[in-house]
Amino acid sequence: MATPTDPVAPAPERETEAEAVWPLSGAPAQGPAGGQGPPAVVGVGDLRATNAAAVLAAVRSADPHPRLSELVQATGLSRPTVEVIAEELAGCGLIEVAPAPSARGQRSPGRPARRFRFRPHAGFVVGVDVRARSVTACLADLDGESVAVERRSVRADLTGPARAAAVTTVIRAAMDRAGADDRRIWAATVGTPGLVDRDNTRIRQADNLKDWAGADITGVLRELLGCRVAVENDANLAALGEQWRGVGRAAEDRAGEAAAGEAAGEMVFVLLDERLGAGVITGGRLLRGHHGAAGEIGFIRFPGRTPPQPGLAPLDPGTIPAAASGDARAAAAVEAYGQRLAEGVAPVLLALDPALVVLSTGLFPEPALLPAADLLLDAAQRHADGLLVDPPRWRLSALGDDAVITGAVRFALSSVEVVLRTRPTSLAVRGAGQLTS
């Protein structure tokens, strides 16, 4: 775990919202339309940054930890150049000399060649999951591995500023547990119910969270952490999380055979909880729509509601535990709920033609309730199969309650990866809070 005595690389300098880089946002790439304009001029500084990125990528991808000669071979750079870059990357804390492997009693002449390894704790990202009655923060390292998680219960009627204060409290608690100061936080993403703008900077609407849209949580966290901050819809992040580390990790062909390592390119994640929403992955990327409102299936008028209202009518309290225990009447109610869900989302599935539909387990928070979840899943898939041309596979979330926070970490980490792949030595320390050019 990182300690205050480790080499510290500060977060990238604060950027305006328009300059922030969020590769998973689905926003169009910035730059001249159609590649118009003169070709870019590559300066000495750009070349150094490119070479440093190549060396860092070689260190991260090699197994076992590479020697200097292996980095020279992998990058095609000269040995003196690789030596200088390795020193720079070590100076900003991104790599270190790996301990020499045990010789197991064998003697070898000369000094063993140095091997280098990536330091995932050189920096951190923060993912936050904001709900009506809870706030969760996860501090993760540069490999996306969780370092510290803090959860706090909050009142459902909190005002926006009070909820923002709760967010800062849980983030601070996670940082304190990990021994990480704010210079180590390189990006943060907040998952929230409601509508989010296309730039991932502002919550447009969150009906179930009082005054939350006016709280400016991105501004609050930029002031706290001094790094890039994004806000994103919770169902969208859950879809990204499931694609990254859940059932969407391996795409399956029509025969049901898994293609190892291939993330699901066409997937719909349905968030079933206090509210209904969906995150859509198409072409391997998050689909957000022109206004950032793609997947808001909670506005669909599902069958079976009298008078007609958007969304699904909630199940009666006690129905899910009773269905999980084998009560026939409760089981029938859960199955009917699944059928209404399938009928309501069938037009969406016809339009998108996904390979996979993933249902969250928000309505089934305890393992003892999963039999009821299976009933709902089976009923939804059977009913949908009769309504669709090419029915997708239906699965329960493998991440459960952690889907949103996992996606938030993934979203934030994608921004840091841009820096690591293009200009890693821009993170070198010249002084507290300063960056070298």
TL;DR of this structure?
The chain is α/β, with parallel strands linked by helices. The protein has helices at 44-61, 68-75, 79-91, 160-178, 217-225, 234-245, 319-324, 328-352, 370-385, 403-422; strands at residues 95-98, 115-118, 124-130, 134-141, 146-153, 185-192, 195-196, 203-205, 228-233, 251-252, 258-259, 267-272, 276-282, 285-287, 356-359, 393-396, 429-431, 434-435. Strands 5-4-3-6-9 form a 5-stranded mixed sheet.
Describe the overall structure.
Helix content is 33%, strand content 19%. By secondary structure, the chain is an alpha/beta fold. α1 packs across α2 (68-75), α6 (234-245) crosses α10 (403-422) and α8 packs across α9. The longest helix is centred in the C-terminal third of the chain and has 25 residues, at 328-352. The protein is elongated, with a radius of gyration of 24 Å. Residues 1-8, 12-20, 28-37, 251-262 and 429-437 have low confidence and may be disordered.
Comma- or semicolon-separated keywords:
single chain; alpha/beta; 437 residues; 10 helices; disordered C terminus; five-stranded mixed β-sheet; disordered N terminus; 33% helix
SSE layout and pairing:
Blueprint: H1 44-61, H2 68-75, H3 79-91, E1 95-98, E2 115-118, E3 124-130, E4 134-141, E5 146-153, H4 160-178, E6 185-192, E7 195-196, E8 203-205, H5 217-225, E9 228-233, H6 234-245, E10 251-252, E11 258-259, E12 267-272, E13 276-282, E14 285-287, H7 319-324, H8 328-352, E15 356-359, H9 370-385, E16 393-396, H10 403-422, E17 429-431, E18 434-435
Helix pairs in contact: 1-2, 1-3, 6-10, 8-9
